[in-house]
Amino acid sequence: MKKLLKYLKNYKKELVFGPFFKLLEAIFELMVPMVMAKMIDKGIAGNDSGYIFKMTGLIVLLGICGLGFALTCQYLAARCAYGFGTELREALFSHINKLSYSGIDRIGTSSLVNRLTNDTMTVQNGVNMFIRLAVRAPFLVIGAATMAVMIDVKLSLVFFVAAPLISFVIFVIMRKTVPMYKRTQKNLDRAAMLTRENLEGTRVIRAFSRQQEEIDEFREAVDEIADSSIAVGKISAILNPVAFMVMNLGIAAIIWFGGVRIDNGRLTQGELTAFTNYMTQILLALVVLANLIVIFTKAFAAAARINEIFDIAPEESGDIEAPVSEDRHFIEFQNVSFTYETAGDCSVRDVTLSVGKGQTLGIIGATGSGKTTLANLIPCYYRATQGEVRVGGVSVNDWELDSLRQVVGYVPQRAVLFSGTVRENMQWRKPGASDEEIISALRTAQAWEFVSKLPNGLDTLVSQGGKNFSGGQKQRLSIARALVGRPDILILDDSTSALDYATDLAFRKALRAEMAGTTVIMISQRTTSLMEADSIIVMDEGETAGIGTHEELVESCPVYREIYISQMNSKEAGANA
Tens of pLDDT along 227-245? Predict the structure, then answer.
């Protein structure tokens, strides 16, 4: 929690004056029993109506002042807590966006969302309740005990018996419930993950008629949350009954022994009433303190989960902002290997290759052979665990990351569009790109034909995730977005898989004509898409099975030949071999 206190630096006044006003409210609350004691002993006992009205007015005044102090504290607490929560979320969101792919993979997307929303809210509530109650509850306990001792030392012994009993009950309950709160947070992470998967994969779920299975799995997850919450609730439910039982027994003891002391003339009826009120204040404050401990426990657990994100170092960035060399080694891999943090074996192993400026490199291989991983090393989404990746004669580790990724246009396997207009999506690589640049990119990507027919053209709204476009249309829009601004390097990660052969061929022809100076890294499962590449690397279980042109690989690489023959009938394969 200490690491998060820096987000309170702009709310120092609220942190000071909030508890101060709550302290004033507690002081006024402690004065009320003494005023009542005087009203009973002097006004009621002496049948002095004037004094009674005077004391009644004083009690009302104390109540109004206490209410004013309480409302002021509530305002300051809310201002501080919500301001703190806002700054924390902004900082956390900013930090998450600076994490590398490895850092995000370490925690998981669903858990990141849960920590950014639920956990920050829990910490925010902890700050709010700290300002409102952290000073008031202990002060009431100490103040009421002090006032009781001042009234009658012997009778106050009842306090010092009842208070430890309630404190012991609180300790036992806290000891059992704290670990349960942590487990509940983990269960929330699992429910969030299932929710995300179901919402993103709803079409696949329906295609396989898996709705009931997914409903059952989600029900199991939320049942676990309910079970853990109920278990905590059952234990916590013991607190109030036991506390009030001890409180009532304490009040009964005060009245009993107090009556004896009244008979002996050592205590007045008003003082006994005040004593009973102080007893009630102490025990209620202890119950509030117990609930406060629960809130702080949740807040500390949530803060620890948030700090796990802050503890992950952001992506390291160099300071070189422009390529040094554009010769035949524009992109170069030198004995590159890469292993994911959670994997036991290399995903890419000892790869060496070079691609010249303006050339096209094709990458092909079986599913899971490391094609996408290899491409992700170029824009430094992941850093090679061994060897070196160089772009423009400079190691990608030495590039300034924003500059490197501005050089690279990347089209992922899964086409992703964002809510907004088509024009806004096209301007992601180059903010402020003109309509002429956007239309040129759309033409190259074979997307202008359908975009031009949309009711509002470039101003057509894109729904969340691009659900109002087909798979092929989304892929072409994603390609066009990467082409805007004419990047030096274009990575196409199997991004034409949803295109028919004619559209794929037209796109490749337009790409060669319009983007002649761009170095293209094309990942594809189709040998026909890679035939005209300057060189093709064949990946097999993370290793290089062969590098060469299409004709060379058909002759020399069994893995490539097998892929090629499987996609051609025997006559075509024989004719092209």
Answer: 888 887 787 777 778 877 8
The conformation of residue 267, written as its DSSP 8-state character, comes to S
289 shares its domain with 344: no
Looking at residue 326, what is its pLDDT?
Answer: 52
Nearest-10 Cα torsion for 440, 444, 446, 449: 20
Domain at 544, CATH number? 3.40.50.300
* 516: Cβ contacts below 8 Å, ≥ 6 apart: 358
3-class SS of residue 558: helix
Report which of 515, 505, 385 is spatially closest to residue 440, judged by C-alpha positions: 515
Tell how strand 386-391 and strand 394-395 pair up: antiparallel
Query: How far apart, in Å, are the Cα atoms of 77 and each of 69, 70, 132, 134, 559?
Result: 12, 10, 7, 12, 67
> How many other CB atoms are found less than 10 A from the CB of residue 11?
21
- Do 429 and 484 belong to one domain? yes
Q: Which two tokens stand for residue 117?
A: 């929303």
Rounded to whole angstroms, what are the CA distances from 138 to 76, 166, 359? 20, 14, 73
Handedness of CA 95, 100, 101, 107 (dihedral sign): negative
Other beta carbons within 10 Å of 99: 18
Structural domain containing residue 440: 331-576
Say yes or no: 210 and 359 in one domain.
Answer: no
β-bridge pairing 420-421 and 461-462: antiparallel
Most confident of 41-45, 336-340, 402-406: 336-340
The residues that bridge with 547 in the sheet, in sequence order, are 537
E strands in 396-518: 408-411, 420-421, 461-462, 489-493
Q: Span 7-15, mean pLDDT? A: 89
Q: Which residue has the tokens 């009826």?
A: 269
- Mean pLDDT value across the chain: 85
Task: List, for residues 373-409, the tens digit of each pLDDT value.
Answer: 999 999 888 889 899 999 988 888 888 888 888 888 9
**pLDDT value at residue 334:** 92
* pTM for the full predicted model: 0.74
Residues 107 and 225 in one domain: yes
Do the beta carbons of residue 270 and residue 36 sit within 8 Å?
yes
d(CA 126, CA 236): 18
Amino acid letter, residue 335 = N
Q: Is the pLDDT of residue 93 over 90?
A: yes
Contact 330, 519 (CB under 8 A): yes
Distance CA 547, CA 204 (A): 37
Give the number of domains in the chain. Answer: 2
